[in-house]
Design brief:
elongated, seven-stranded antiparallel β-sheet, 21% strand, 27% helix, alpha+beta, 17-stranded mixed β-sheet, 24 helices, 907 residues
């Protein structure tokens, strides 16, 4: 993070002047000044400093001014014999006594020798430390605090300008256009790099504003655009910046040079899917299913940070452990960030500022906890809902970027309840003492038997005092305190007491959490970091409390140095990666819905199958309540396959119930009912639904699409228990060749761009490996194929039964005899053993209450129940399409769920 806090100007001046290469001069051209009759000469000065090369244009009078300033500085050292000038007095002895006059000697009068004479004079000054470090010399050479930072790219363009205040295109900052007549001029040092420009206060080295290049970037010259003589207007999505130059020539020179540098930037063009980022080929990337490996790799990557860490989350729990079981605090998130901050790493965290009456994620606690740890940890929250007129939308993205070199993107917040692995445990009692004094772990078993416990059963666990975080020696629990959760039974409360249990883990099973994420490197990671920087700087401008220097402006590193990786995430493979986002003027200062475009494009162009795993499934646009067209694209693709008589499959995996607190069987859970309403509206209820629009297929729709949820079971305190696995993923896989992983749900909040902010990556395999598709040989992408098999193997039980083949995802054998057969079998068994809802036989609230009160085989005959559960294959169960089909699930208008657009709710 190149800010004045890292490189203060005095230090940079010294570094900038050392080893400056000898200068070369050429006479640029002659011109007739409109203000003068005499002819003036403009000299191009070609400069070299290490790997940096640049050119400045100067007149002879600028040499005279430089000489005069150096002479004044020298005289001050003589006349003011202060201690602070002692070093200067030693350095200035080698300085030339006088500035040579162009008219003073025969040599100076000869044009052929004039340039050579000036070159020798300037190089002579640069060989003297006193002159080289002088402020006037650095300004003459256009050298500033950020000139020679390699990661910021080529030196670019620099110089002093006067800038006008105002011009922000942010709601609330230009009230009634007051900036057009109430403004001030300030002298600043302008810097133009290869993907951004900024200006700073040269006296104190503070960066005052950063303007990123984007498709709206343009430079205009003249009074018509600036209302200023010799003015230049520089625009992008967020600001119209006006600078004032000293002459007509200088104004056009700034305009020309800014455009010359900006024209090489990819960010001036709208990219594929209407996105801001270019598809980056040969990008190292890695996918993750579940949080265990993701958290572990993230922890190791954080340990490698040398300069900066960027984090943005919908919810962040400082006390979450990234490696488990935790036997010390070393791998706790807040301890990791504190450790890196103490090493000098800048940590910048952006949190969603929730509406406290609606959500209990307590971002104030997260901010306070982290900020109190070290001054190098900066935390900002956004938005202020009233002042920004944003009451309903959220920052929903989840992202970590390290040194702008490695980035992690996906659906997993660094928060409680997210860590899980493929075993999806329902219990976590740690170690207890058995009757024969042997230590035995409680039911944490593999999904081969879905967590059932064989052998001795534990006695009733002691209700021990909660472990303090500093007393973890010998701990075997995976989820400590609030991390052990079942948020449908009870949402999180008292997050400022993180190590106290939220629910009774001896009686209530936890709800497993299934999620996907990705790691990316190089140029794609720079794109992720650039998005974070855009949001950070936008928030700093918008909120008055962040305008001081404690919260620095951030600068994006150049893509020209992105391929130099200091470390890589183990197991990463190369593919083409494009960073996508949902962004709006309220959230980021720009508008984009590239995630939605990528989803629709991928579905429309898929040839064999799509696999959707998402927390929400709310689509099928009607132009009134729902606007995203993902469901419509699915319908059209299935109908095309049917007309062409080609095999095509759609796999959809969603949560069996929405993730909101409430007991729907007792008449509660308005939010649950509302989300179910819009989910069923998408799938099978109403004329806009997918199945209604597939009516021409009649019963053949089952050959094309299958919709499932996930469930597992275990044993807790001698009792059999079951719970749904909460699908929080936001993933689309197509044709074993490409996939999308991110934070965007399939609903309007995430997809439209004008609502919640989101981030995702679109990964396309560039290599091919032999596979099979539809019974024929097929060239699949290695990354996508491995991801699809990882997902399918756990869901259908192939990870514990090698006889189950998942090689051909669209074959009749797999689709009907493996996938749908497992889902049907498991649904039947769970209904018989637990009478768990949601279930297809329950059509209204009366039947739901009757169904919930039925005797459970798990209670009446536990031994028989255990035998029945042995037949469960994997985790799949069919999503109950007729559950509560006779009920109106929309909440009453008088409730908060009825007044808010809960059809697009997020968790």
């Amino acid at each position: 993070m190149a800010t004045p806090e890292d490189v203060t100007e005095p230090v940079t001046q010294s570094l900038a002047a050392q080893n400056l290469g000898r200068r070369r001069f050429s006479r640029d051209h002659r011109y007739i000044s409109p203000d003068e009759v005499r002819v003036g000469t403009l000299y191009s000065v070609f400069l070299t400093h290490g790997q940096f090369h640049w050119t400045v244009k100067r007149k002879y009078k600028h040499f005279q001014e430089l000489h005069r300033d150096l002479y004044k500085h020298r005289m001050m050292c003589h006349l003011l014999p202060l201690g602070r000038f002692a070093k200067d007095r030693q350095q200035m002895r080698a300085m030339s006594a006088e500035m040579p006059s162009l008219h003073g000697t025969e040599r100076a009068r000869r044009t052929s020798s004039k340039m050579k004479y000036l070159e020798e004079y300037l190089n002579g000054l640069l060989e003297n430390a006193f002159c080289r470090n002088d402020h006037s010399m650095l300004e003459f050479l256009s050298v500033g605090a950020l000139s020679f930072i390699t990661d910021l790219g080529p030196k670019g363009l620099e110089g002093p300008i006067f800038k006008r205040s105002g011009g922000h295109r942010i709601q609330g900052l230009n009230c009634i256009g007051h900036h057009q007549f109430c403004f001030r001029w300030s002298r600043r040092w302008l810097v133009v790099k290869d993907s951004f420009m900024m200006y700073m206060n040269r006296d104190n080295g503070n960066i005052n504003f950063v303007l990123l290049f984007d498709p709206e970037f343009k430079v205009k010259v003249g009074r018509a655009y600036t209302d200023t003589k010799y003015g230049v207007c520089i625009e992008n999505f967020t600001r119209s910046l006006i600078i004032k130059c000293s002459s007509y020539r200088q104004a056009h020179w700034w305009s020309h040079e800014i455009n010359r540098l900006a024209d090489t930037s990819d960010f001036l063009k709208v990219q594929r899917f209407g996105g801001f980022a270019v598809p980056r080929e040969d990008t190292l990337t890695k996918w993750y299913v579940n949080g265990s490996d993701y958290f572990a790799d993230l922890a190791d990557a954080l340990e490698q940070a040398k300069e900066e860490i960027f984090i943005t989350d919908w919810w962040l729990s400082p006390e979450v452990f990234l490696k488990r079981p935790a036997t010390e605090n070393y791998w706790r998130l807040d301890e990791i960030l504190k450790r890196k901050a103490e090493q000098g790493v800048k940590v910048c965290v952006l949190l969603y500022k929730e509406v406290e009456l609606a959500l209990g994620i307590n971002s104030e606690h997260s901010k306070r906890t982290l900020m109190n740890m070290h001054s190098n940890i900066k935390v900002m929250r956004h938005p202020d809902h009233v002042s920004s007129v944003v009451l309903l939308w959220a920052h929903h993205e989840k992202m970590v970027a390290i040194d702008q070199t490695v980035a992690f993107v996906g659906g997993i917040d660094l928060a409680f309840g997210r860590w899980d692995d493929s075993q999806y445990r329902l219990t976590d009692l740690g170690l207890t003492e058995t009757a024969n004094s042997e230590t035995e772990e409680q039911p944490n078993r593999d999904t081969a038997d879905n967590g059932e416990v064989d052998g001795p059963k534990p006695s009733e666990p002691d209700k021990q005092t909660e472990q303090e975080p500093e007393n973890l020696t010998g701990n075997t629990k995976l989820w400590l305190g609030k991390d052990y959760s079942n948020f449908i039974r009870k949402d999180w409360v008292q997050l400022d007491r993180p190590f106290e249990d939220n629910i009774d883990r001896t009686q209530v099973p936890r709800m497993p959490w299934r999620d996907l994420s990705a790691a990316i490197h190089g140029r794609a990671a720079r794109d992720v970091a650039r998005h974070f920087i855009q949001r950070w700087n936008f928030t700093k401008i918008f909120k008055n409390k962040y305008k001081d220097d404690f919260f620095p402006y951030l600068l994006p590193k150049s893509h020209c140095t992105a391929d130099s990786l200091s470390f890589t995430v183990p197991g990463s493979k190369k593919a083409k990666v494009q960073v996508l986002r949902s962004a709006d003027r309220w959230s980021t200062g720009t508008c984009e819905s590239s995630i939605l475009s990528a989803y629709i494009h991928t579905i429309e162009n898929s040839e064999h199958y799509i696999y959707i795993e998402n927390q929400f499934f709310i689509s099928c646009a009607d132009g009134k309540t729902v606007h995203n067209g993902i469901g419509d694209a699915i319908v059209n693709r299935i109908l095309r396959a049917h007309r062409e008589q080609k095999k095509y499959r759609v796999f959809v995996v969603v949560p069996l119930l929405p993730g909101f607190e409430g007991d729907i069987s007792a008449g509660g859970g308005n939010a649950i009912q509302a989300i179910l309403h819009f989910t069923y509206r998408t799938i099978c209820r109403g004329e806009q639904s997918i199945l209604s629009r597939l009516s021409e297929l009649k019963d053949q729709w089952t050959e094309y699409i299958t919709i499932c949820g996930l469930r597992t079971h275990s044993q807790l305190s001698k009792s059999l228990v079951t719970e749904l696995i909460y699908v929080h993923s936001k993933t689309l896989i197509a044709d074993d060749r490409c996939y999308i992983i991110g934070s965007a749900n399939i609903n309007d909040r995430s997809m439209l761009g004008s609502r919640d902010s989101e981030l995702a990556v679109f990964v396309e395999d560039e290599e091919r490996v032999p596979s099979i598709m539809g019974g024929e040989e097929y060239q699949a992408g290695p990354l996508t194929l491995a991801l699809r098999k990882e997902c399918f193997s756990v869901l259908v039980g192939a990870n514990s039964d090698p006889s189950i083949s998942i090689d051909d995802p669209i074959s009749d054998n797999f689709f009907f005899s493996v996938w749908n057969s497992a889902a049907k079998l498991n649904t039947t068994i769970y209904d018989k053993v637990f009478k768990c809802h949601p279930h297809n036989s329950v059509h209204n609230m009366r039947e739901l209450k009757e169904y919930s009160s039925m005797d459970h085989l798990s209670d009446s005959d536990p031994e028989q129940a255990v035998e029945e559960l042995k037949a469960v294959r994997g985790l799949l169960v069919h999503f109950p399409l007729r559950f509560l089909c006779e009920e109106n699930l929309l909440p009453p208008l008088g409730t908060k769920e009825g007044m808010a657009p809960v059809n697009t709710g997020q968790v």
